[in-house]
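User: Hey, my collaborator sent me this sequence without any context and asked if I could get a structure. I don't really work with proteins. Can you help?
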Amino acid sequence: MTQTARLLDGKAHAAKIRSDIASQIQTLHSTHGVTPTLAAILVGDDPATQSYWRNNRKACEEVGISPLSFTLSADTSQTELDELIITLNLRPDVHGILLHAPLPAPLDSARAVSLIDPAKDIDGENPATLGQLADRSHPLSFAPATPAGVMRLLELENIPLSGKSVVVIGRSRVVGLPLSLLLLRQDATVTITHSRTVDLSSVCRQADVLIAAIGRAHMVTAEWVKPGATVIDVGINRVDDPANPGKTRMVGDVDFEAVQVVAGAISPVPGGVGPMTVAMLLDQTLRAARNQLGL
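Assistant: No problem. I've predicted the 3D structure and written it out in structure-token form, which is a compact way to encode the shape of the chain:
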């Protein structure tokens, strides 16, 4: 019988994290009369953005976080958006702020996220938050939820990082770059790769831990993976479902069926990093509330 990799069950870990968060929130409310509150700003009517927030809103409600929605029209001016962020920064009853991307043109996303108070920047959007990740002497505050979810999954699965070769495929501002900084904090030897990397597959084959966050369905094949390596799949891609003509299914950046017979451990899509991302968004909202109370 062909041996397959150990499955890194993000869904199960996330369920335990969410249960613990719910318990902590009950204690926080009974002891201090405070309910952690997350304010989400949505501009326009992008269906993917709306769906993402619906899922997060439901998750907030399930653990006891109060979700506030601020939906702006696509023709909202930069001044109106800026004023809303500044207002939320000043509201003591709002502990976290989440600005959903993409913003419709001509809004300046970089300007908007730079206005989010770092103390409320629970998804690591402000460049100042990213800068803190890069400074190992600075206490870790918040990170984008997906990189934070990857790191927590590796921790809970007891995957060693210190001194290990870790290859990250993807250099995005929201995943690849902050994730690489978090890995460096754990003394990993990090290689950041991307679409311009020469002989990418050979670089990936050197990795003890391979993390795919490039956004291309099944890009990472078995030939890219060092035998026994840990493979983390961050990709979310929609492809045609042969079993259901006219419908799609979700797959990752990794060819799961082929890679699982080479890797030592692997995260699935769905059920791997995705649930951990949501759990970290909740965790960091709770942490922001506790920080603002001086707890």
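In plain terms: The CA atoms of residues 8 and 267 lie 5 Å apart. You can pass these tokens on to your collaborator as they are.
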